[in-house]
Amino acid sequence: MRLWRWTRWLSLWLLLVANLHAVSEPASLWGIPLSEYALRRDALREQAGEQAIVLAGESSTPVRLKFRQDSNLMYLTGVEAPGAVLVLLPENSPLGVSEVLFLREQSPISRTFEGELPTPDERTQQMTGVQAVRSVRELNEFLKQVAQAHPQILLNRLARNAGLDQTLREANPEAQLGSVERLLAALRIKKSPAELRLLRNAIRATIDAHRAAARKIAPGAYEYEVEAVIQEAFRRNGSERDAFPSIIGSGPNSCILHYSANRRRMQQGDLVVVDIGAEYSYYAADITRTYPVSGKFSPRQRALYLSVLEAQKAAERAAKPGITMHELDRIARETLRNSPLRAKDTDGKEYTLDHFFRHGLGHALGMDVHDPETGQPLQPGAVFTIEPGVYIPTENIGIRIEDDYLMTQRGAIKLSAALPSDPAAIERMMGQKSPLSSKAR
Ligand code: GLY
Ligand code: MN
């Protein structure tokens, strides 16, 4: 009897705690509060002024890949369903509504194959907080009214691909159609605390994968075996997919910037460039390290490696609010030019190291690994990569070091700092056996 009473109290208490938890957690989708999605839509509508916005998401699931919603539609709604279209209208629209999300009805067959998807109903309206959710069957009729009431309309590429520009033009031949991408690019630059949490999760998964890769790399191992342990670490850390195809380029492949075949067998004396990024809840990481296959850099490899590291550090030091990516690129290039090291290119001539830095210094990072660029100076809240490299095909030496940074009032913070990059630490990391393999011994 006593025990019965006690368990009853305990279950009531647990229920209370669970409810308190539910009340204190704001409603969210994919780790972003619904209120934040609403603010994003409001900010976009404000930027658009009197212009209407028609933004389509991905229409179907590619056979070879999991469905991934278009980043812009995801940014504005958090809805992961094929065939979605979002229409945003100025506050005072005569159509009596300022945001409508059009969704497909789901057939019983689709439910059998794909499970429940968000459909145009009350539940989805509450789940998303979008003002109105309607069936895509009503889309054409609604777009005709939009074209009449708001002759200036901004569309995204997917809306054009779906022929929605034609529908608008037919309804109003005077309609002026433009692109919405530029406005979204500007909005997506500054990351919120919720976005930074997701980015940090993506970075954590990617660092874990680098540690696993460092342990796997050895003479005789195949590049794809390294890829396998990277994939395992990503998934184990909750990442849904790779943010881009993993680059595991050893020996001559270290000089191919976007090498992703990953079929070669690594050899003693090779360097291997490992450029990888997990995607976590639609946010991407992008971190590169270069490892010596034997576990020790040769003196030449080490000297070149240190020059690349110095270029990264110089850019990092200069990364303060107001500087452009272009200026940081120039600083890194100058650092490489000032290195005393020289190398021969395939034309037989000798060059300073900046000659072998064959790509841009970095890019914006966010929902996409290469987030849309605006060319504007870096401001607090921007997340970006710094990734200098030198690629010397005559020596089969490719070296790239890439980290992820957050701009703050006081300068750039390295978000991926938990993964070491100095050569001694890289060598130590390679020597560490995995807990599993040490147990087996
Ligand atoms: N991590 C690949 C790239 O930035 O292009
Ligand atoms: Mn990158």
Number of discrete helical segments = 15
What is the CATH homologous superfamily assignment of the largest domain? Answer: Creatinase/methionine aminopeptidase superfamily
| CATH level-1 class of the largest domain | Alpha Beta
Supply Rg.
26 Å
Task: Indicate the overall shape.
Answer: elongated
Helix fraction by DSSP (H/I, runs of at least 4): 40-55%
Alpha carbon gap, first and last residue: 53 Å
Question: What's the SSE blueprint?
Answer:
Layout: H1 2-24, E1 28-29, E2 32-33, H2 34-48, E3 52-56, H3 71-77, E4 85-88, E5 99-103, H4 108-114, H5 122-128, E6 132-135, H6 139-149, E7 152-155, H7 157-161, H8 164-171, E8 176-179, H9 181-189, H10 193-216, H11 223-236, E9 241-242, E10 247-250, E11 271-276, E12 278-280, E13 283-284, E14 287-292, H12 299-318, H13 325-338, E15 342-344, E16 350-352, E17 383-386, E18 389-392, E19 397-400, E20 403-408, E21 411-414, H14 423-431, H15 435-440
Parallel strand pairs: 3-7, 5-6, 7-8
Antiparallel strand pairs: 1-2, 3-4, 4-5, 9-12, 10-11, 11-14, 12-13, 15-16, 17-20, 18-19, 20-21
The chain binds glycine and manganese (II) ion.
Manganese (II) ion binds at residues 286, 363, 385, 387, 402.
Task: Characterise the protein shown here.
The chain contains 15 helices and 21 strands. By secondary structure, the protein is an alpha+beta fold. It folds into two domains: 26-188, Creatine Amidinohydrolase, Chain A, domain 1 (3-Layer(aba) Sandwich); 190-438, Creatine Amidinohydrolase (Alpha-Beta Complex), CATH 3.90.230. It has a six-stranded mixed beta sheet with strand order 6-5-4-3-7-8, with helices on both faces. Bound molecules: glycine (GLY) and manganese (II) ion (MN). Residues 286, 363, 385, 387, 402 line the site of manganese (II) ion.
